[in-house]
Write a structure and sequence with these properties.
Number of helices of chain B: 10
Number of domains of chain B: 1
Shape of chain B: globular
Oligomer: heterodimer
Radius of gyration of chain B: 20 Å
Number of helices of chain A: 8
CATH superfamily of the largest domain in chain A: P-loop containing nucleotide triphosphate hydrolases
CATH class of the largest domain in chain A: Alpha Beta
Shape of chain A: globular
Mean pLDDT of chain B: 90
CATH class of chain B: Mainly Alpha
């Protein structure tokens, strides 16, 4: 599946002028509030008409202002999970879930009702009405409702924004599963680096109506420092770790990755569990020699693969630690003092690891 | 309690009133919903004019409305001739005319109540239904209408009560023929015009009050039931 988007539209204070394509998987539209993200997916979903532009999925034209083509929302088969769930208050949860099913021909249905209900853990809610359900429950039902309608593409507009951390933790694993089983491509709008870092396979960064960067998630996350605006301090690297064991002596959880052993706060994982972690570029220190007598537990050997100047006094250092790619942000002054060059062997000292539970 | 006993003629007036008001309400409800939806959701040229036209019977003297109906829907009126030749439907001096007069007089109340409740339906829910593949007519039937139901019930019952009590336009348009166009209010009026009619007027008045109260209570109960269902159990 592929999605091609090219749009121009006047939006209050600024003009939307964007073009991007998504190869499938989970494409995050990332940017600060008011950067035009929601307008873009409203146009993809058919809730808003662009002044000019063209949108197509797999060569099927949804909008083309040049030929005056506009497919109405109900003919697009594009699911939409709204920030505020928008469940039908007069229908039971079961009726909400099955609402879109009747509009899809049998052969094109893939969102199985029982399977989706079990996956989302909403079986006990089926006969209730939405009004008194919690935010997390409503959002899971909204995702289920979109999925059971078997869309060709799902749009999600900050589906976690109105939820607290515990509720978010209920839903994130489910979105990850959707992405990994690759049943349906997702376009995911968010202004949260943590969410995007965990979920996205591709990222399109929007800033005041324009695309300031686009590409595979790993590349974009490493380069977030280069971007203007709110995302500036949030760049970093995403890594996949395997849980090894709970270390009896230290009480810490021991994880492994190509770079080496990671010591993280104790957690309830089982051997073989894989977790995604995010390391901010500003949370890595560099040393040119192996260190002794330091408090940090997570120290890895690697090689400098690139030096990228960023703001006036800072520089981004890309590292390859036996296959794990890390990006560190240090001052130019330090880089000069250390005499960093491409191919140089260094020690990366990771101060903080943000564990993203899965 | 002897005096509470209704005479056959009085019974006829009561039955006729309920019959006329039921037809007036049922026949105008689809138009009421359509006009209310158009006023609530669409923008089109002449919207202000339509709005004014719908509300006109509320502010015009009922006699004027009745006279205009007579001009338009009388046997020689343009609309009267049209309905007679095309549908075989005659309004003048028939119960159908009483129903038409009741419907026209009750229409503004009906449209107003329904319009308010349609305006209160969150259009974002209709959008959500669209993204699930529902075509506009299906969305209207399964999302807009059910969510506007309390207002539709209120509007219907209000219209029924208004049509039941319609007097000025009815008597002007279709006169006061017992068994044909003599509804409850006309019958009460007739009683007050003859010596010794007080008991009859009082009996019919009590019935009018009872019907109005029953209608209000019924609408309250129905609307509450709908609301409770939506607030979730």
């Amino acid at each position: 599946m592929s999605l091609e988007v090219a749009l121009r539209h006047k939006l209050g204070a600024f003009a939307l002028d964007i073009a991007f394509s998504s190869p499938g998987g989970l494409t995050a539209l990332f940017g600060p509030s008011g950067s035009g993200k929601t307008s873009v997916i409203d146009m993809i979903g058919g809730l808003m008409r662009p002044e000019s532009g063209r949108i197509s999925t797999d060569g099927r034209v949804l909008v083309d202002t040049a030929t005056d083509t506009f497919l109405p929302a109900h003919k697009r088969r594009i699911g939409y999970v709204f920030q505020d769930a928008r469940l039908f208050p007069h229908l039971t949860v079961r009726q909400n879930l099955t609402y879109g099913r009747r509009f899809v021909a049998g052969a094109e249905r893939y969102g199985d009702f029982d399977e989706t209900v079990a996956l989302l853990g909403i079986g006990h809610l089926l006969d209730r009405r939405p009004a008194k359900l919690s935010g997390g429950e409503k959002q899971r039902i909204a995702i289920g409702r979109a999925l059971i309608a078997s869309p060709r593409l799902i749009l999600m507009d900050e589906p976690l924004a109105s939820l607290d951390d515990a509720r978010k933790a209920e839903i994130v694993p489910f979105i990850e599963r959707l992405r990994d089983e690759a049943r349906v491509p997702i376009v995911y709008v968010s202004h949260s680096v943590a969410e995007v870092a965990r979920l996205a396979s591709d990222i399109v960064v929007l800033d005041r109506g324009r695309v300031s960067a686009a590409g595979p998630a790993r590349d974009i996350l490493a380069g977030l420092d280069l971007l203007p605006g709110a995302a500036g301090d949030e760049g970093g690297s995403r890594l996949l770790l395997n849980f090894a064991r709970l270390d009896a002596q230290s009480g810490l959880s021991l994880f492994q990755s190509p770079a080496g052993n990671w010591h993280l706060p104790p957690s309830a994982h089982r051997p073989g569990d894989r977790v995604t972690v995010f390391v901010k570029a500003s949370d890595i220190l560099l040393a040119t020699k192996p260190l002794e007598g330091i408090s940090a537990l997570n120290v890895f050997s690697g090689r400098v693969t690139a030096l990228r100047p960023t703001r006036a006094h800072e520089i981004l250092v890309d590292l390859d630690c036996n296959g794990d790619l890390l990006t560190a942000r240090i001052t130019r002054h330090s880089a000069e003092r250390l005499g960093l060059f491409e191919g140089m062997a260094v020690q990366a000292i990771v101060k903080t690891v943000r564990l993203k539970e899965s | 309690m002897e005096w509470l006993q209704l005479s056959p003629d009085e019974w006829t007036a009561v039955r006729l009133s309920i019959w006329v008001a039921s037809w007036a309400t049922a026949a105008s409800l689809p138009f009421g919903i359509l006009v209310a939806y158009a006023l609530a959701r669409w923008s089109f040229p002449g919207k202000a004019f339509l709005n004014g036209l719908v509300h006109l019977p509320l502010i015009l003297p009922p006699v004027v409305t009745g006279y205009l109906l007579l001009l338009a829907f009388g046997r020689r009126g343009p609309l009267g001739q049209f309905f007679e030749t095309v549908f075989g439907l005659v309004f003048s001096f028939r119960w159908t005319g009483a129903a038409l007069a009741g419907a026209v007089m009750a229409f503004p109340l009906m449209v107003r109540a329904i319009r308010l409740s349609i305006e209160a339906v969150d259009p974002r829910l209709e959008q959500a239904a669209g993204t699930l593949g529902a075509p506009p007519a299906f969305i209207f039937a399964t999302v807009t209408l059910p969510l506007a139901l309390p207002g539709i019930i209120a509007g219907t019952i209000l219209a029924f009560a208004k049509a039941m009590g319609e007097f000025g336009a009815t008597i002007t348009f279709v006169s006061n023929i017992p068994g044909q166009t003599q509804t409850l209010p006309s019958a009460i009026y007739t009683f007050t015009q003859v010596p010794g009619g007080d008991a009859g007027a009082m009996r019919l008045t009590l019935i009018a009050v009872a019907v109005a109260m029953a209608a209000l209570v019924a609408s309250e109960i129905l609307a509450r039931r709908v609301l409770r269902r939506m607030e979730g159990a």
